[in-house]
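User: Quick sanity check before I run a bigger batch. Here is a single chain. Can you write out its predicted 3D structure?
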Amino acid sequence: MSKVIKFIITILKNLIFIKQGNCYLQISIFLLLSGLIQSCSDTANNQIRLPSTELYHQAMVSMEDEYYNEALKNFEILVDEHSGTRLATLAHLKMGDIYFIQSKWEESETSYRQFLLLNPRSHLTPYALNRLIALNYERNHYGIFFKSRDYDRNMEPNRTLIREYQRFYLLFPKSPYLEEVKEYHSRAMSDLAEHELNVANYYFDKQAYHSAIGRYLYLLKNYPGFPRTANVAERLIAAYRLNRQPELADEMQRVLDSLRERNLLAQHNSKEE
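Assistant: Done. Predicted structure follows.
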């Protein structure tokens, strides 16, 4: 191809020296050469296009060898050039896996959701949902190390995880991924409860007792299995007293004492100690 182009360029340069009387000849040769260039270009493009099976194989080999950028490149070509095929749809799932490994959570989520959109009834749907749940937990878990204050952490990924868990449990109650999904759900609930406690304590320390009371009550109502329930109740009682609500403080104290007498908080207390 390069030799042909060089030859064409040489001819075009020589045309400059042809007399004006041969103008018709110049135009004819120019049009002929232009058609030849276009023909060569189209032929080259057709030769570059690889079948979907070859692209997928190359991408998988690169992925297994941990050449992730090369794998992504081939998967993207596969999606662009063979859109709508089975392997192009599967490429979205594989790209989600690579982005997950690279901790690129947004790109990973987009790829998994695209796979689910294109193939919602696939036998790989439970796997894709499992990965969505995992990445939402990991996305927020990694965020812990970039936040200096726990009270203003973005907990939306954990809330998304819980919604995905509910969807997963309803659709695939017997999936082999269910136990792993339950573990992520448990961690997410624990993180959300800890976050609520941190926010409540922040308000308490700022002497914003009304706001602290609202957070403590929300935590007790929505996270009944939280292992630090007794501690939350004690902080709520203190907030009531400091907010000049002694009747509510006394009522909450009676509830807490009753639970302790019936050993309903024994397990929680032992963990706190």
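The mean pLDDT is 81.

User: Great, the batch can go ahead then.
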